[in-house]
Write a structure and sequence with these properties.
heterotrimer, A mainly alpha (269), B mainly alpha (142), C alpha/beta (214), A: 269 residues, mainly alpha, 2 domains, 1% strand, globular, B: mainly alpha, Arc Repressor Mutant, subunit A, 5 helices, elongated
Amino acid sequence: MSRYLKLVHMEIHRFRYILAALMCIIAIFQITGLIRFLLRELGHRELVNDQYTLKPLSFAWTIFNTQRWFIAPMLICIAVLAIYVFLIWYRDWVGRSTFMYRLLMLPTARLHIYLAKMTAIFLFVLSMLSFQMFLLVVENIIYKLIVPADLRVDSFFSEIINSNQALEILWPHNFEQFLYVYGLGFLVIIVIFTAILLERCYRGIGILYGIVYIAACILLYILSYSLLDSYESYLYPSEMYAAVMSVCGVILICSFLLSFRLLSKKITV
Amino acid sequence: MKESGIWTEVTFNSRDPLYLQVIRHFKEQIAIGQLQAGQVIPSRRELGAQMKINPNTAQRAYKEMEEQLLIITEGNLPSRITNDVRVLRHIRSELLNDAVDSFFSSVHKIDVSLAELIELVTSKYGLVRTEDTKIDGGGEQL
Amino acid sequence: MLNGVTFTAEKGQITCLIGINGAGKTTIMKAIMGLTPLKSGSIQIDGQPLSKGIYEKVAFVPDHLTMPLGMRLSEGIQFMQDFYASWNCERSSELMSFFKLNPKERIGNLSKGTAAKYSLLMGLSQDTDYVLMDEPFSGIDMFSRESIAEVFSSQLVEGRGVLLTTHEINDMEHLFDKAVLLQDGIVHKSFDCEEMRISEGKSVIDVMREVYQS
């Protein structure tokens, strides 16, 4: 267990600068956008001297109007993390130093290497989310600092989340949504990891295996959805839901087992 | 134990058994007086490191030298050259005999009389000895 | 392409696996270390088949860097210490000073000779029964090579089984107990170096010439 944790720590440690940079990018973009909008809105209210002047400026409204500033850095983060899903493996093979030699020779189950990388990605995503939440609090404070009390309107947390299209997807409203978004995301990462390992084990033809594997999983998922979703289906919605979940479960388990087997027996540096 | 060069400046050829070359080196050092009777010699490991040879080779050489009564190892003490004067003298004569043997094997095909050989050897001896006494203070004769 | 290679490397001996570039020496090392799958055949360490536990028994010194380039030398050592029960801290400090390595230096900034010394340090600081080295001397400057050779004949290696690969012998044959000559995917000749000198008066290079130039 402790070896697994040490590996997780190492994976996080290696990524810390990029993580910090991403956080800075998000912060800078969002706060800049926020301040610009607020100052402009206040400026308008000063110029025009009528009912508009008294119109309150809610935080949720602010968030709604600064979406571009918010979503752009989020997309950058998502892109970087998506690339790192691949790089977290490939960086250990490619380049002057092949760290994968060391990892594979550690007196620990190879499972732990895989789990550590998976955990690391998972933690990165979580930390980005948490940071966003933290940033919202900070932005709220900034909002309160800039907007005079008589124009302020408190917003509910759910209002804030709903004002931003990205946040609406990323910040789950209920368990089902959480499962759907993050469970699926988790599954995607597992499938990609498996494809990466296929490529690394079989080199030349491995790329083909990897692509085929991903395609097969996607196909399976779409099929399960469409087959079960047809109007003539005799399954209840909850049963359909369970069926799709089972298919996902099957993909998950197969990918895990395949990955472990590849990593233990077939991997080559 | 770490006289400069006595162990580190040995060159080995790769075709003759290394352990025999090590033993020969010991004998030569004894004959020229660099190694004294009863002198402590490096451990097997140290010898291997200084001569840059495999420690097992050093081990083998030591074993053989012990059998030849050339060195003595008492318990856990470091090994030393034997104190037995007869053995030491024997080495001297052994090396001399070997040298003379190889001299004769190079020379016997050439048609030369014993008298000419002796004259040659005498003149060379004189030359070599004067050079030697110029270079070093002379080692102890056994 | 290897095709039936059989040999034994013993504890307390330094065995040298010789073959021209591409003969498969590195593949053998990797197979022993579980870094590449074996298509057939078996590898046994002390009579036991390969298993997870071998990493505490066998250390491997690859021919290139295997630590993250951004890490400092001291951090690399800390990493190994964290994972290996068989890590010997005294020996790693001893080797650090013997090789005159700077612990604050980043691994990416090392020269080839220094990197080789560091890799050797990584391998030898583990208290394993066996050490495998892949081309420890190739591409290294002469003085680094001398340091490394000194480490060989010193107590750091004694008592362990050492298996190393090389494609050129130079003046190193005095260090080896046993030589295994590889060609065309099989073992052509396997012999004890001293015995070869005693029985046939041949050096390892002589035998190499016979095998590789016929």
